[in-house]
Every structure is written in C-alpha cells, then in structure tokens.
Write a structure and sequence with these properties.
3 helices, 23% helix, globular
Length: 165
C-alpha cells in the first residue's frame, strides 16, 4: 500500500469549491436544496450554498469510516434524517468531500429516491472504484486524501475518535 497521499490545503479547498460551483452553474443546474453529508461534506456544502446562491441547505449524518482504510460493513444514516415534506418537485444537490467507495453517496441517493424531483451529486474528489459516478467532480484520484479539516488529531478525544487519520 502506497504512503503517497493527496493533500488538500485550505487555499486549494477554496479553489476547488469555486471550480466545482462553476461546473454546476455552467451546466445550468439550479438546485433548490443542497444536502451536505456530514462530516466531510459540511464545508463544501456551505461553499456551494454561497457560490450557487442556495439558502436551503440540509445536513445528513452518515457514519462509514472508522479509521484510515477502515470502515463499517455498510454506511449508517444517523438521526435526525431530513424530512422532505412538500419537496416532490425539488432539485437536490448532494455534496460530499470524496466519493471513495461511493457507498455513502449511494445510501443518501437511495434515501432521497421518491421523495424529491431530481438528485445530482458533487464531490471534491472521486475515486475510480466508487460505485457512484458523480455528476460534478473537481478531481479524480485513488490516493488517500488529507483534508485540512481532518489532517490533525482531534483536540478532544472520544472513545469513538478516528486515530491517526
């Protein structure tokens, strides 16, 4: 297993999020809502909300990774889950930091099925083995990615904290 990693800095995150938003705008896609997958998708979701002038933003908590290259058998949607009342015609943009296996994105897409009008996906990074091929991708890589928000150990340790990410 290679120790080489993709490194995303805060400055590069700003460039990536802006470029990703421009791709979406250039495609004339105007989402009614942005659904960020927590935790990695929170920052990109906020950036997309501002860049695409979308105030209707939601968060969905999905647990999958437990450490570097360690994950649960299947992603688990954690409460509270969004309530899509009166959104049968809505266009939803699901955002996350990375489509690694793609199982997290797939579980969120399946959650949205039949509840909203249209779903598209946007990520900063997509890996070649992802089961979901995202509609909007800033960069493709198969390296492990160090994100600026998770490349240092937590300052507050919990029993469940990811070690040595």
């Amino acid at each position: 297993m290679s120790e080489e990693r993709e490194i995303l800095t805060w400055d590069l995150f700003g460039e990536a999020s802006r470029a990703l938003a421009q791709m979406i705008a250039d495609d004339d896609y105007e989402p009614d809502m942005i659904l960020s997958i927590a935790r990695g998708g929170l920052l990109i979701g906020g950036a997309m909300g501002y860049a695409l002038s979308v105030k209707n933003t939601y968060t969905m908590n999905v647990e999958f990774y437990t450490g570097v290259h360690e994950r649960l058998e299947v992603p688990r949607i954690l409460p509270p889950a969004p309530d899509f009342v009166d959104l049968h015609e809505a266009k939803i943009l699901i955002v996350d930091d990375v489509a690694d296996t793609g199982h997290t994105l797939k579980s969120v897409e399946q959650f949205c099925e039949g509840k909203v009008g249209e779903v598209r996906t946007a990520v900063i990074y997509e890996k070649s083995h992802s089961v979901v091929k995202c509609d909007y991708v800033w960069k493709r890589t198969d390296l492990w990615i160090n994100f600026p928000w998770s490349d240092k150990p937590p300052v507050a340790k919990r029993d469940w904290s990811v070690a040595d990410a």
